[in-house]
Amino acid sequence: MNPTDNLALARTLHDFPMGAPKEASTRGACGRAYYAAFIVARDLLVKAKFPFQPRGVHQRVADLLRQSTDKDVKARNLDLDQLRNLREQSDYEVGDKTKKGFAAGDSQRAILLSNTIITSFQTAAKKDSRLFIPAHVV
Fold it and tell me: Which of 21, 116, 119, 125 is most buried, taking the most CB atoms under 10 A from its CB?
């Protein structure tokens, strides 16, 4: 599956498909937007031959991107962290745990962040397949 298909699904969910519950659609859009950006980042790092263990992949991606010497890659890593936080809110702050709803603006923000992250990481990878992460970083 192309990871950017998750971003397309996020857009569909954000537009509340006919009969779909609005808040569940909004929350689902955040999750799909996060995974679109995360998987693109992970796949670029795998392609650049960075080793990964089966567990701790999310943290490993963040740790590697934090070491980039490119200011845009570092900034988009902070955006990815924001996006992960949004996804966690959308997934876990539900039911009796919270009385706060999840607004359509939250999913719109997630979609915009995801699109920006994906575009920036793909552009950076065309310039340097290692996303400007120094050679000594393994």
Answer: 125
